[in-house]
Amino acid sequence: MSDSETIFSPLALTEPLPFLPLAQGDVDYDTASRPQPGLLDRLLEQDGTGVILVRGEKVAVPKGKGALAGRTGASIRLATMPAAYLRDPLTGSADQFEPPCYYLGKADQQAWLALDLDLACTNQAVQDPLRDLAQAADQRFDWLGLREYAPHGRPRQVGLATCAVALSVWHGRQAFCPHCGAPVHPCQAGWAQICQGDESGDQHTLFPRIEPAVIMAVVDGRDRLLLQHNQKWPSGFRSVTAGFVEAGENLEHAVRRETLEEVGLNLGEMRYLGSQPWPFPASLMVAFRARSLNTDIRVDGQETDEADWFTREEFSAALASGRLRIPQAASVARHMIEQWYGSEL
Predict the structure, then answer these.
(1) Which CATH number does the domain 210-341 belong to among 3.40.710.10, 3.40.190.10, 3.90.79.10, 3.40.50.300?
(2) Which of 18, 159, 208, 329 shows a CA-CA span of 20 to 30 A to 341?
(3) Are 229 and 304 in contact (CB under 8 A)?
(4) Which residues belong to the signal peptide in this entry (predicted)?
């Protein structure tokens, strides 16, 4: 019997991943309210509205809590403040100026906003009190990247942070209309941009673009897991196969194409495992487990330079010795590897 043959399929008992760190939020996005004129001002005046702070890929946590990131079992909450604290700095600005906030939605009847300090500091319409607040926040809080924060946060707060980071990164990267090159300004409570129009007066409403990517745990007939090394990664770091979906391509085709391109393996059956947003800067990771029909690995030598099959015993020994490093806890890849392994690592 060859390595690719088996009586019992290694995918037979595969179940969807029960937990993905960035896909646990339970907030009602309240999308119908976003286009309402003056929504952000009203929410700032509303008792009970909560605000989190975001700066690009980082969110604010209470001072001293940042040191807990990476510690097993550590719990870290977001730094939050009542909207009343921000009313004066955020209201009464220039005409047609929308506060540098994003309406994240409602949870248990409480509205949540994210104050984007990067946007606040770059917008010419922002008043000095808000600039002063942004500078003070840099000193008063610790700032963690979403990758570091997510494994330690409660699901609802991780969901809020994920949306806030995704919007902050988008606004930070797109200051001009991709259609005509005119400047853009946030609208719809931060979930869209309005283009100021070209010489013809043509305007566009722009929305965040999401880039779907597939990620797959490839196993052979003996249930060995394929782990590969990208040339850009540090020595010893391995992960599962992944790649972006191309134009006109469905997810299943992308899984097969990327695996064949990177490691020369043809795939048979596959199972969907789950998905989660990955706003670095704008991806949606869609996870699969797939069985390879052959075991002869042929790396492309351009993106992937090493790849090997691992039994659970080989994997455990390599991890314990330090010869092998794997993705961090916030990633889909880590949970896919742990599912295959049979326990947390």
Answers:
(1) 3.90.79.10
(2) 159
(3) yes
(4) none
